[in-house]
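Quick start: what a row looks like.
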Amino acid sequence: MGVYNFHIFDSAGNCLFSLNRSDRIDQQKILYGFLYSLKSFTARMSPVLAKDNSFFLFSTSGYHLVFCEFPTSIKFVLILTADMRNDSDFYRELLGQLYREIYVQYIVKNPLIAPSVGAVNTGANLSAEKHNTFDCELFRNHLHIFLTQNSLL
């Protein structure tokens, strides 16, 4: 019972943070591609009046995937075991609270963490992709406390 993984993506699809440090970059890209496709699919299939597809809960027999995109284009992805509660309102509020109380406090307001950047001129290779990730121990510790308090770990 609990969390398989938690990811934070930027607007360009770069994984800025992963709870499971052993995740490979190709797995993160596949996950982001899946989320992009699922978001596009739900936008096309939903009625004209229901265009808010910044949050969804996707469930299978093996796991739940919770996706939430914030107005800053930061995307939170929470992957849970299948025995966790299947309540979209709970997870919408939970991820909003996580954004406000943990992410903003320990990442956005942290002067030591640079914002994500796109293509960088490295001199030798102008098209080199570089993005900043963060792995702040203070953020990681408060994230664990937050997930434990909400019975997810």
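That is the whole record. The radius of gyration is 16 Å. Strands lie at 3-9, 15-18, 55-59, 63-69, 75-81.
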